[in-house]
Amino acid sequence: MPVWARDDAFAMAPEGWGWVDFKGKPHPCESSEALVAAIHDDRDAGVELVWTPSHERLILPEELSDATDAVLAARQRRAADHLLDAREKLRFFGGLLAGLAVYMFYQGWQYAPAAATPGERQGFAWHALLGSMSLGITLLMFLIFAFIPWYQAHKRLRELSRWTDGDGLALVPILRFESWLAAQSAPVTKILLGLVTLVAVAQILSAVQSAGWAGWLVLLHGWPGTTEAGLSKPSHLHGETWRLFTAPLLHGNLVHFLMNAAAMLYLGKRLEVFARWPHVLLVFLFAACIGGEASARFVTAPSVGASGGLMGWLGFLLVFESLHHRLVPRTATRRLLAGVVLTGVIGLIGFRFIDNAAHLGGLLAGVVYALIVFPKSTSPHRPKTALPDRLAGGAALGVLVLSALVAVWKISGPPH
């Protein structure tokens, strides 16, 4: 059995009854009834694991036979709360999107030549509307932060309305997998995130240094550093190959950084736990470079961001988990595939300002890496790390640390 499905996947249970929150803090209960009541009243998914005198180790609430109705009630209440919250976001982002669309249409109409006919003015207005980068970014925010959460909450509530006695047990494998994975450490992923954060701080401080306190407005607009250390295509093609290594550590703005940081923590931990730490660094470096080369060949605008490396992680995990199908539940792998589809949709919507060449190049690089490095296996055990893997991983870490220092130096130095 894979490690997350074994009886010893979770810690030993204390005496009596109680539950553990997502931070690992125990909450003892006086009786079985009190534990079931805590599960029933859980509004924030705080009850991660539970313990009882009849179980040697911590278990999921879904595995507690006396708590089936309580689990269902808690899940339905949380889904309803999430749906209400998502509806508020739909209204906010929908209103923002509609208002900006009307404004851009009006601007195009107003700035049309004075001699333009009404039909020509309408053409100018539609061109301004469809060509607006601000409108495209707002549409992406609406999709990511409003529509998708609303759809997920609506779908979950509909599924719970058809809940049967066996549904709780059917969810146990994926829930055990997610709970076990969340409890694992991923120090190398955090180191990589720390390097990206270091460069982000350098970008912000550079803006403040050049523009005073008004530079803090860079959090809402474009971050500096693209010219100095980003993937400037003419500079790269004329010999500045080092930009392939520094550009993935830079970001364009705060939203860009936060979205990539969240993806890095999720995908990086998963890769580090199952494929081991050297491949976290090796796949990221390889995919970021291949994605950068693809961008240099097909996109003229300068590029920054870790997206190429992250797409490499995504492609790697899809192939790796398919080749090692006993390591993770199938439903968990389907979520990765949904991530690829969602990235493609976002790329189509934001094609004017999203580097789809880097995304596709990074994705294919991760797929190729997994196919070459990891043979197909029916073992439920995670691959072990050999000495060559550790040496290569250490070298990749050195390259990434040096790249971060070069990026900070370039950003902080005098403009070129």
Please write out the topology.
Elements: E1 17-20, E2 26-29, H1 32-40, E3 49-51, H2 68-110, H3 118-130, H4 133-161, H5 167-170, H6 172-183, H7 187-211, H8 226-229, H9 233-237, H10 243-246, H11 254-275, H12 277-298, H13 307-323, H14 330-349, H15 356-373, H16 387-412
Antiparallel strand pairs: 1-2, 1-3
Question: Would you kindly provide a written description of the structure presented here, covering whatever features stand out?
Answer:
The structure is a single chain. By secondary structure, the protein is mainly alpha-helical. The protein has 3 domains: 9-68, no CATH class; 80-171; 184-412, Rhomboid-like (Rhomboid-like fold). The protein has helices at 32-40, 68-110, 118-130, 133-161, 167-170, 172-183, 187-211, 226-229, 233-237, 243-246, 254-275, 277-298, 307-323, 330-349, 356-373, 387-412; strands spanning 17-20, 26-29, 49-51. Strands 2-1-3 form a 3-stranded antiparallel β-sheet. The chain is globular. The relative contact order is 0.10. The mean pLDDT is 89.
